[in-house]
Structure prediction request, 547 residues.
Amino acid sequence: MRAKQHLEEMLRRIVTENGWEWPEKAVIEPPKDKQFGDMSANVAMMLAKQAKKAPRQIAEDIAEKARNDSFVASVDIAGPGFLNFTMTTDFWQKTAGIVAEQGDAYGSLSLGDGKKIQVEYVSANPTGPLHIGHGRGAALGDSLVRILKKAGYNVEAEYYVNDAGRQMLILGQSILYRVRQIQNLNPAEPEDYYKGDYIREIADDVLEQHPDILDGTEEDATEICKSIGMSTILDGIREDLMAFGVHHDVWFSEKSLVADGMVDETFSDLRASGLGFEKDNAFWFKSSDFGDDKDRVLRKSNGDTTYFASDIAYHDNKFKRGFDVVVDIWGADHHGYVPRMQAACEAIGNKGKLHVILVNLVNLLRDGKPIAMSTRAGQFETLKDVVDEVGADAARFMFLSRKSDSGLDFDLELVKQKTMDNPVYYVQYAHARICSLMRKAREQQAQPADCTPEALALLNTEHDLDLLRLLDRYPDAVEAAARGESPHIISIYLRELASTLHRYYTNCHVLSAEADLCAARLLLLACVAGVVANGLSLLGVSAPERM
RNA sequence: GCGCCAGUAGCUCAGUUGGAUAGAGCAACGGCCUUCUAAGCCGUCGGCCGGGGGUUCGAAUCCUCCCUGGCGCACCA
Prediction:
């Protein structure tokens, strides 16, 4: 019953009847200017070449037939050959019935058709607490998971734990250094180590659990520090993510890849297919065959495998788990890594199934002044601190208001402000306002009307229709967000819905209206509140009932 | 030097599988609370869409060459 769907079915039928083929690039969408009607189609222009006729003439043919549709009030032809449709008022009014009937399910799609899709995100090394940059990736990944589920995909969220390799060794050494310091041993400062206060706290715990740690070998001591450090930090990461409303279904360990022999398996597979080769005492992957700039080393001449080697094995493992699509969310500073990872996925027979989303850096500011961040130097603003200060809702909405691949200034003072520079409150306020109305309505024994044609017919002002048209578009917003893997589309939609609601609120009084009209308007507003809450839930932002 | 991403109103940004006169918010200025939350609404001002060429009925969007900014270019992770 949605306008776009209805018109597309009709237009496809007419095009077929005329012996033409539906052009894949044809779109039906609301025009940017209301004067062009409710929905606009470019199909006549797209058909020009195929039909060997002038676009406007094709448009005439189509318009004549389209006028027979009982839900189409008028069809105009404009510009180079646009077909502009105005739907009947009662068509739009039915929207309220559909939204009310479907409730929370409104906006759910069958786009994904149950396909298995994995979203891997955050995946920060367990060497320190999450900082604000991780927060952006976390918000994006979690929201994307919610959107893809809504769109009908079978989605699994995963965190890849880099619990093997050099970074973990440095973590162990950093803690051991602090342990010795606490014991007043005046240890030599390691060349490269994590300097944050949390390392000292972990060192305290280590000493408490292993008072005799320094009696054993250096290796054993480092191993103990590493293990306690990692589990402590990982627990902290889990807590911080939970407080931020972010969930992962699977925590996948890099160590387990090696232990299960998956890396070796990858090596022999590549060797067998001729895509791996020995040179200069190292083992290489011929990634240049798949568009990468150069070949890459998987096993160094000193015998260690590279990070890339386990990453190939990891992705191989993902595809073997049956995912049709694998989404990786990475920091934009890793963009140089994309071509080789794509090459690897192609080499192991999964071309085009990896989608990499790059999340650009977050510049943390306070009152316009930058706050420097570096895990190593131990000076950073943690995600936890930021969430504690500004709230999870405001932080998430800020992260999800912009395209992920452009840089983001995150000003702590700004995000606390209640202005349109910080639109989370604007959207939440729309929801709270409606809830407040509903409470007042109950006090005076008024309640939303049932979706009868008589009740719906009372929703006949331009303000009513503006809201109804926007509600009708919600599933399109979900679809666009899912297809584009772009949660910010939901955020933009919500701002527009909130804006239209606030305008309605100012112009159309509800509780003072005559009883039937009041009930009809309550019905409409209940639908709006439902869709606002629905959309906010896709962003992982709460919909408060009062503010 | 090579590559990727960005450059749209004073500011922050939408809009980019080519569509109609390029949109919001903020800021500035001017209005609206004796009725449901003013965290709101209405109005005015504001643009060679970084620049030059090209492709076509039509370009912010595609191609090409420049300019500016960010980030990458390891037998690091």
